Amino acid sequence: MASCPPVLVMYNPVCGDGTAETFFNEHVFPRLEEAHIQVTQKMATGAAGHAGTIAFDFLERYEGNVTVILGSGDGTLHEIINALSLVALKGVRKNVVSSSVRVVLIPCGTANALYCSLFKPISMNEGPAYKLKSLEAFIMGSDVVPLTLTVTTLSAPPSSKQSCSNVAVSAVVTSTALHASILHDSESLRKELPGIERFKVAARNNITQWYSSHVKLLPTPSAQAVEIYDPDQKTFVIHKDSDAHGIVDVHGPFAYFLSTVNVDRLEPAFRITPLASDIVSSEVSLDLVMVRPHRDPTFVMDTIEARNAFAEKSVAVLTAAYQDGNHINFRYTDDGKMTNEGTGPTVVEYIRCKGWEWIPDEADERAHLVCSDGAIFSIVKGGKAACSAAVPADGAEFSVYV
Ligand SMILES: Nc1ncnc2c1ncn2[C@@H]1O[C@H](COP(=O)(O)OP(=O)(O)OP(=O)(O)O)[C@@H](O)[C@H]1O
């Protein structure tokens, strides 16, 4: 008789509003028992970073495709993916090139971006059945969807003595500018505001900030192009500033700079990259949303007044993202107002490409922050961050039951 594939159950007891354990005891374990699913190991994470160690140890002990039933938000999944992607496994997997990890997601975190994108919520107050959709898919033997990952390398300047670079793998979001600042600041608000409200408070505190950087957008291999969304044609077109290699140079300052893979939203209703699900990409790519205040026809000079005035436009962009992703249709009128009509410059530049390089201005400290699925990194002075979308060719492969 064939042995059962290994199943690891893991939940983060402190994620979201801290109810993962209760949810597992009341809903997940009873359902697994009812379905006669044998659990190989169950663990609660004990600290930040523990999820990666648990998954790593489990893979080194059990052969074959592994299923991880994970009760968490996006951050804990990020830890697992990073722990398995960036280190060579030993034990039973010593000479194994590729290990497949199939994840059953139980959304217990604050934002649950990946889950909400895979299982679109109908109302804001979905009941327990909504949270059990991936588990039901696993029990029914449904399909899995492979995850596209982005690999971001944070490197020091070539002249630096620091030779080692930092690498972060993201399954949801890689960002700089306002979003990275929000995630950086919101962590300290977690105790006080356990829900998504803390992101809004952190957003208000950072909304007037601009970020100085030079960006290179990198073309997808098959189209050999960086694409930009054209709201007139309602499709992606080749970026007009592409050079002979398909690379596009973009200069700041930036108010917003955020890329996603696998998701069209970062919270149940915050559809920041709506085209990820409306116009599905046929190749490995990421969706990138940028807001550059200089595109505003009324922009004259970078002053405190100009930044305060532009903050209202940034708020309008973020608010429209909550209105089914309508921010991507905004254009400027000649007098700098925002409208859904006309032929003025788009407020948001919505890009589809293979990756990007972010080279922050040395003098702009906040422009050095990078967010990878909620984890915050800092680029060293004179360095840069290079982010590229990939489906892992070797090493771990991740997929989710849907
Ligand atoms: N026992 C623990 N004690 C303290 N921190 C923990 C523990 N277990 C995991 N963590 C940390 O909790 C953090 C938050 O988890 P996670 O990101 O999954 O939830 P969230 O932030 O509430 O949701 P989301 O990422 O969807 O917004 C993770 O970064 C992880 O390092």
Strand order of the largest sheet: 11-10-17-14-13-8-19-20
| CATH second-level architecture of the largest domain | Sandwich
Largest sheet entry:
8 strands, antiparallel
- Helix share, percent: 10-25%
The chain-level structural class is alpha+beta
Keywords: Kinase, Transferase
GO molecular function: lipid kinase activity
Organism: Suillus discolor
InterPro entries: ATP-NAD_kinase_N, Diacylglycerol_kinase_cat_dom, Lipid_Phosphate_FormReg, NAD/diacylglycerol_kinase_sf
Outline of the structure:
The chain has 402 residues and is an alpha+beta fold. The chain is 24% helix and 28% strand. The strands form 4 sheets. An 8-stranded antiparallel β-sheet has the order 11-10-17-14-13-8-19-20, covered by helices on one side. The chain has a 6-stranded mixed β-sheet with strand order 2-1-3-4-22-5, sandwiched between helices. Strands 7-6-21-18-9-12 form a 6-stranded antiparallel β-sheet.
Describe what you observe in this structure:
Residues 2-155 form the DAGKc domain. The chain is of the alpha+beta class. Helix 2 (50-61) packs across helix 3 (74-85). It has two domains: 7-142, 3-Layer(aba) Sandwich (Rossmann fold), CATH 3.40.50; 149-390, Tumour Suppressor Smad4 (Sandwich), CATH 2.60.200. The protein has helices spanning 20-34, 50-61, 74-85, 113-118, 128-131, 133-139, 177-186, 197-206, 275-278, 304-321; strands at 7-11, 41-44, 66-72, 98-107, 144-146, 149-155, 166-170, 173-176, 213-218, 227-230, 235-238, 248-251, 256-260, 286-291, 331-332, 338-339, 348-353, 355-360, 369-372, 375-378, 384-390, 395-401. Strands 11-10-17-14-13-8-19-20 form an eight-stranded antiparallel beta sheet, covered by helices on one side. Strands 2-1-3-4-22-5 form a six-stranded mixed beta sheet, with helices on both faces. A six-stranded antiparallel beta sheet has the order 7-6-21-18-9-12. The chain starts with 6 loop residues before the first strand and ends with a strand. Adenosine-5'-triphosphate binds at residues 12-16, 45-50, 72-76, 79, 109-112, 374.
